[in-house]
Amino acid sequence: MGAVRSGEIRALTGLRIVAAMWVVLFHFRPLLWEASPRLEADLGPLLDAGAAGVDLFFILSGFVLAWNYLQRMGPSFSAKATAHFLWLRLSRVWPVYLVTMHLAALWIITTLYIGDVPSPDADKLTALNYLKQFLMVQLWFEPFFDGTSWDGPAWSISAEWLAYLLFGGLVLVIFRIARASRARTLFLLAFCAALPPTLLLLASGVVYTPWSWLPRILAQFTAGALAAAAVRRLVIDGRGRRLAGYLSVVLGAAIVAILYHYAANPVAGMVDPGALASLLFLPLVVALAVGSGSLPALLATRPLVYGGQISFSLYMIHELVHTAWNWAVVQYSLTMPKSVAKMVVVGLILVALIGAMALFHLVEEPARRWMRSMADGEGPGAVPAPATPPRQLVRGAAAALAAVLTAAAVSGVAAATGSPTAHAAEATRIAVIGDSYTAGSEEGGNGPQAWTEVAWGLLAAEGVEVDADVGAEGGAGYGERGNRGNLFIDLTARTVRRGDDVVVFFGSRNDQPVDPEEFPTLAAETLGLARFAAPAAKLLVIGPPWPDADPPPAVSRIRDSLLEQADLVGAEFVDPIAEAWFVGRPELIGADGVHPTDAGHAYLAAKIAPLIYDQLTIRL
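Now predict its structure.
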C-alpha cells in the first residue's frame, strides 16, 4: 500500500486559480476580442474552451474530498460523520454563495429602478425560486443550466451540492473497491468513470445538451475520487515524482495543442471537438498530485496557492462584475477607442480579483471558521473545538448578518437577528511522542525553540489553549531504543493520558535497523496502547522526514508500514517524504546533516500546527 496522507496538495490548490481564470476569461471574451481583435486570433482556441474549467473543478473536487475523507468515512457508514462532512462543505461554500446570490438579486432589483434597461432575470425573483437558490437546488429541476441561477456561475455549486449529498454513499463504495484493487485498476476505473461526457460529445457533437450537466458532475466527480484512491496506493521515489512533474508539463501542453489543432482542423458535425481535451484533465490532476519540481513546484508557489485559496470567491464574483459593466455599456451607450477598451478589460479583471480577495478575507474564511465552531457536540468521544478568534468571529457574524439583511431587502421582510453567545473552550490536551526531531539536539530545537513550543504558540494565536505532554527521546523509535533506553511504547505509557484530545506520533528514522517483519507489530502495539490509554483522542501519526528527495529503502518501508498501522487504528497519517518536507531547504538542517536547526523547528511547527488544528473538529 502506498504512502499517502490527508491534507492539502499545494500544486492542486494552485491549479484552482488556473481553472478559475480560464472560466473568467471565457466569460470576458467578447470584451477582450472587442478591445483587441488580435487576441481573438491568438488566444481564441484556448479561451473559447474556458467553460471546461468547470469540469476541471469537478475532478478536483472529487479528488480532494476522497483524498481527505476516504479513510475517515470509507470503512463504515456513520450518519454523524456524514452530517459532519456536509456541514463542513456548507461552511466552505455557503457563505460566499449566499453573499453573491443576494448581491445578484440586489443588482437585478437595482436595474428595475435605475435607467431603462431592466435585467432580463427580473421575472425570476419569485418566492419559490428564492427558496431553490437559497438551498442550492435550483439546477436539479432544469435540463439546461443557463439562467438557473441569479449569479450565473452558481449553477455549478448546485451541481456540486448534489455530489456532496451523494458522497457519503460513494465513499463507501470506493473504499471497498480500493481495498480490493491495485492502483492501476483504480486508475483504469477512474478513466472509465470520466468517459460519459466525452461519449455524449461524440454522439451529439456538442457539449451543451439537455441534462448534460448531470453526467458532467457525476462522472467527473467520481473519476476524481477514484483517482485519489489510486494515488493513495502509490509508492513513488524522488525520481518518479520528478518524472510525474515532467509528465504534468507534457499533459498541459497536450491540452493546449489539442484545442489549437481542432480550431484549425474542425471536425464535420462536431461543434465542440476541443472538448475532447478534457480527457487529459484526470491524468493532469494525478501527475500534479504526485509530482515534484517543474509544473507542480510552480503551482505550489505562494502566489498561486493564494490564488487557489481565493479562486472560489473569484469564480462567484466575476460574473457580477461582468454583468454590471455590460449593463452600463447598454444603459449609457458607452463607446471607447481600443486603447481605453484594453484598460477597461484589465480594470474589470482587477476589480473581480480585488472583490475575490475581499470576499475571501471578510466572508469566506471567517464565516467558515464560525460555522465550523457551531459543530458543538456533547456526546461521548467529542473533542473540544478550537475557539474562534474574536476578530474572525465578528467578521463571520457580520458576513452572516449581511446575508440576512440582504435577503430581507429582496423579500421585503425585516429580519431580526441575535448575537451568538461565545463560550470559552477548555484547554486542549495534546500528547506528543517522538525522537530527537522533537526532543531537540545540539543543532537546535531546545527549550522554547522546539517545534512543539512554537506550535503551541501558533495554536494559541488561533484561540486554542494547549495543555501538552511531550515524551521524546533522541535515538528512540517504535522498535529502536533511545539514548535512555526507551521505545515509543514506553514513552506512550508515560505520556498519554485518558483525557487527551490529540496524540501525535512523529518519526522515526531511527527504526531503520529494525527487522521489517517485526516492525509492523511493534508499531501496532504502540498505536494500540495510545488508543487504549486515550480512547476519545484523535491519533495523528507523522512518518519519518528525510532531508532530500531520495530516502533510503528502509525509511520508505517504515513509512509504508506506519501508514498501514495508522489505517488499522483509525489514525490520520501524514507523510513528510511525499510532502517533501525539508527537500531543497538545506538551511533548515544542521551541520550533522540530520537534525533540524532552530529555523528547521520553526518550519516543523508551521507544518504540524495546522495538522493538529485540523484534528480539533467536533463530530456532529
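The CA atoms of residues 498 and 532 lie 8 Å apart.
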